[in-house]
Amino acid sequence: MPARAEVEGVAFIEFTVDEAETSALSDRLRALGFRHVGHHKSKRVDVFRQGNINLVVNTDPDGFAGVSYALHGQSAYAMGLWVDDAEAAVARAVALGAERFEQALTPGEIKMPAIRGVGGGILYFLDRGSVLARIWESEFDPIDDDTDLRPVGLTGIDHVAQTMKYEELLTWLLFYTAILKAHKTPMVDIIDPAGVVRSQVVENEPGTLRITLNGAENRNTLAGHFIAETFGSGIQHLAFSTDDIFATAVALSKNGFATLMISPNYYDDLEARFGLEPTFTDRLKAHNILYDRDDYGEYFQLYSPTYGEGFFFEIVQRSGYRGYGAANAIFRIAALRRHLRPIGVPKL
Predict the structure, then answer these.
(1) pLDDT in tens, 217-263
(2) Number of other CB atoms surrounding residue 302 within 10 Å
(3) Quick one: which of 342, 242, 344 has its CA closest to 289?
(4) Under a CB-based contact definition with an 8 Å cutoff, are residues 233 and 227 in contact?
(5) pLDDT > 70: percent of the chain
(6) How far is the C-alpha of 150 from the C-alpha of 155, rounded, in Å?
(7) What is the CB neighbour count within 10 angstroms for residue 113?
(8) Fewer Cβ within 10 Å of end Cβ, the chain: N or C?
């Protein structure tokens, strides 16, 4: 059996949407500083890019993307990982009981090794030593995006957050750690006003892979609502990294991107807890930035509101810090819940 795969990083996250939702998602990504850089040669698939981040928007009604949309609605249904050997990674996964994923290819399309992942979504593998390294140039025609919006300084994907029922959590922890050269962190309880969500992280030593797995015990929590309303487990949020979160916040504002409003009480508590200077706290408050620190460094977080049934974006600045801002979760969740569609209220 091949050894566990070394992960270089996240190659892409793929969204499935219908034509009516494409414009709204595209505008949201542009406000986040992403440029439309490519259109697939034979499918209704587009690539948006900023730094090393590739976000794929799939509106093609055929194939698995269309099936996933019919079942879950708009969602981040697939993730691609750069690994040392894509075929070996799939061979190991299948030998351990994972389900290989394949679908018919269009002319000129490259076969990308893949398996079924969380919630029936897709986990793709790419490597630098095969034709997969040229997939963006081979399959996509370049697009000159002249939208008058600026990059906001996002450099990569810090972590991908997947939400599932609590009883599935151990299964998916084993799934990732058996296939990928990564380890799990201790379990952390995330306090939601409606209950507790159990959270564990799969990460590797270089920090090029971080997947937070959040197990919901009831449907009343933010995580539980997401599972219930999207009919299954899946990616609930993406966390992008930046080297200067204050500069990023200013650029987001100029792009018209609305950040999640954080309660002013949070900053009073923060100042007392860490003994922060009021001028620094005021600067955080002005941009709705959350703050934490540990023995290794500091951590800054900035959130979008929720979209649809609970999906959201996060932007972080990590300066040696090894955690994920668990102490801030209760404030973040309370703020996010204000944007959820109440249960029983139909979609517009």
Answers:
(1) 888 899 998 998 887 899 999 999 999 999 999 999 999 999 999 99
(2) 25
(3) 242
(4) yes
(5) 97
(6) 14
(7) 24
(8) C
pTM given for the model: 0.94
Alpha-carbon dihedral angle through residues 151, 152, 153, 157, given to the nearest 10 degrees:
-100
Cα separation, 24 vs 5, in Å, equals 36
Residue 117, token pair as written in the block: 């992942």
Q: Which of 271, 320, 264 is nearest to 291 (CA)?
A: 271
3-state secondary structure the chain: CCCCECEEEEEEEEEECCHHHHHHHHHHHHHCCCEEEEEECCCCEEEEEECCEEEEEECCCCHHHHHHHHHHCCEEEEEEEEECCHHHHHHHHHHCCCCECCCCCCCCCCCCCEEECHHHCEEEEECCCCHHHHHHHHHEEECCCCCCCCCCCEEEEEEEEEEEEHHHHHHHHHHHHHHECCEECCCEEEEECCEEEEEEEEECCCCCCEEEEEEECCCCCHHHHHHHHHCCCEEEEEEEEECCHHHHHHHHHHCCCCCCCCCHHHHHHHHHHHCCCHHHHHHHHHCCCEEEECCCCEEEEEECCCECCCEEEEEEEEEECCCCCHHHHHHHHHHHHCCCCCCCCCCC
Give the model confidence (pLDDT) of 272-284 as tens digits. 999 999 999 999 9
User: Strands 312-319 and 298-303, how do they pair?
Assistant: antiparallel
| Chain centroid, CA 287 distance in Å | 22
Write out pLDDT tens, residues 88-133: 999 999 999 999 999 999 888 999 999 999 999 999 999 999 999 9
Binning pLDDT at 50, 70 and 90, where does residue 146 land? confident
CB burial of 186-211 (b: ≥16 within 10 Å; e: otherwise) equals eebebebebbebbbbbbbbeeebbbb
